[in-house]
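REQUEST FORM: STRUCTURE PREDICTION
Request ID: SP-0412
Submitted by: Lab K.M.
Chain count: 1
Length (residues): 202
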Amino acid sequence: MSVAPWPAPASAPNHPRSHADLFWSFTWLALQGFGGVLAVVQRELVEKKRWMTREQFVEDWAVAQIMPGPNVVNLSMMIGGRCLGLSGALAALAGMLAAPLVVVLIVAMLFAGVADTPAAQGALRGMGAVAAGLITATGLKLIGALGKNAMGWGPCIGFAVATFVAVALLRWPLAWVLLGLGSLACAWAWVKLGAAGGGASA
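STATUS: Completed
RESULT:
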């Protein structure tokens, strides 16, 4: 089954040139993803390579989060498949996994001997704080993309706050939050898109 090509808008004119481009681009991206892969993915794909607009990144990242498996791996396969079909998805997947797997195995062997030391535990806590900062900064950079969302600013902020409360404060299972609030958000977007389409045709 072939994947329909993704029409690139003027604000995101670039696209992967070949399978090798996909492989090496995602290899480099994966090797930078220490402590906050979301920030790295957004900078590389949107700001540097311009393979996606901010709006496309937000939408595709949302889909990648819902799918099983690591978010960035899902996103890489979506981009590879959309641009170069199944072989493109496999090239992107190989780039995401090959070199990082070797690095992780080497680091795991080196870290095993010092994992229980106070210095190592302190370093891990410090990296956790940096990762939280990177994710927060990226979220603030991307929030402007919600202005073009079909649901509108108000519902977008409302669903974001409701999701935060459900997950962070009420500790509801993520699957139920996605099923409940995600279904409501999809239904509202569908209604708004239908209304917009009806108004345009009229």
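NOTES: The chain is about 75% helix and 0% strand.
Reviewed by: T.R.
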